[in-house]
Structures are given as structure tokens and as C-alpha cells.
Amino acid sequence: MYFTEALAVLARRWYVVLVCGLAVVGGLVMAVKTVPTQYQASGEVLLLLPPAATGKGTPSNPYLNLQPGLTTMATITASELNSKPVHREVEQAGFTSDYAIGVSPDTGPLLLITVKDIDAAEAAVTRDEVIRRITLQLDTLQQGLDVPETQRVYSRRNGSARPAEAVPGAKIRAMAVIAGGGLVGTILLVFTFDRLSRRLRRRNDEEEPARDPGDADEHHRLTLARSVNERDVDEDPHRRKARDAAR
Fold first, then answer.
1. CB 46, CB 109: distance < 8 Å
2. Which of 46, 54, 59, 96 has its CA 20 to 30 A from that of 172?
3. Which DSSP letter does residue 106 get?
4. Residue 114: in which H helix or E strand, if any?
């Protein structure tokens, strides 16, 4: 079927398109009203060495002393807290928001925390709990190795005081699914309805008996005779007698 033929079918069955369009619009309105707004809380944790890590006599700036080992430690910490057992432990503690921890590939030992929830306050609380557990994990990793104080890695929180922000992605995805599904469904329904209608009309035409031409002539004669008789009945008796006498 060519594109112009498809447009002709849609135009011919415009009422089906209208009903489906109204249904799609109703679905979009319902999606805006019912799909909950999702909130995202984010934070950053930077791993640093103490100023005396390069020696007490020659302390250095911790921001300028980012060793490759710090990135390795950040990766290990993120991997541990992203594991399923820790996720279950956090959830059992009452923090049910979804969270993820990643390591910034361009900044070094910088952990990025992202928390999502339909409750803004819950997302912020879960973010703070994850940051707290990052600090605990750092302490656990170093205590097992008897790391000296001058080489002990510590964490610095960045942006953890920001409130959770609304993310419209959930509503947009729901509306996109409804719009796309509605468009495809409308096209399928229109073409199916058009095919069934044409098939039903063709079947009715085949079942209707063909009229005999002789029947048409006989019908015409009967109609003519009936009209003559009716005219004779309605005519005045005196005039009819005069007409018959003239004959």
C-alpha cells in the first residue's frame, strides 16, 4: 500500500482516528497526573592524603598530592558499596531509595553518589547514609592493614548539602510510550476496521439476488393498471357514463 493510499484510508475512517486520538490524549493527561515525580539527590566524596603524607618537615597540599593509589582505593570502595549485600543492608536499615556510586574517570579519586526516589526527603536522607558508609568503608579498609596516620586516607564531602531536585524523566518516558503506542495502535485499528468494513460490504453485495428485467416490466404494467383503476374510481360517475357513451 502506497503512502497516499494509507492517507486516504485514514481520511475515510476519520471518526476512528478521532476516537483513538481522544483516547491517547486522555492517556497523556492521566500519565501527567498519576506518574509520580522522581527526585534525585547527588553528592561527591573526594579521597585525600593528609598534608604530612610527604613528611612532617615538608607537608604538601592534599589537593596536589593525589596519588594513583587513591583512585584505586576509590574504585574498591565504590565496588563494595554497590554490591547487592550492601544494597540489601541499606534497605533493611530503612533507606529504600535507589542509589549508585561511581568513580569520576577524569578527576581521580572522586566518588559520585546518585540517589533517586519519589520522595525528595527520602532521597536526601539516603544520600547522607551512603556517604556515611563510604567513610566507614575507608576506615575498615585501612584498619586491616595498620596504615600509619601520616598515610591514612580521609574523605571530604562536596555538594552533600544540596536538596533533592525533581527529574521529569519518568513522566516524559511514560508520555512517550503512550504517544508511540497510541499512534501505532490507531493505525492498526483504522486499517483493520477499514478492511473488515469493505469485506462485509462485498459479502452483502454478493448475497443480494439479481433482479430479473422481466420482473421490472411486469411491475411497470401492474403499476400502470393500478393507476388507471384508481383514476376511474375517483372520476365523477356522470362524466364516466358520457365517456363510455362516446366510445
1. yes
2. 96
3. T
4. strand 110-117
Per-residue pLDDT reduced to its tens digit, 182-228: 999 988 998 888 888 888 888 887 776 544 445 555 555 666 656 55
- Return the ∠ at Cα 79 (arms to 78 and 80), rounded to 5°: 90
Which phi and psi (to 5°) does residue 229 adopt?
-65, -40
Residue whose C-alpha cell is 601520616: 150
**Alpha carbons 80 and 166: distance in angstroms, whole number:** 28
The secondary element (H helix, E strand) that includes residue 15 is helix 14-34
Q: What is the mean pLDDT of residues 86-104?
A: 92
pLDDT in tens, 12-65: 888 888 898 899 999 888 888 888 888 999 999 999 998 888 887 778 888 887
Instruction: Say how far apart CA 89 and CA 86 lie, in whole Å.
Output: 5
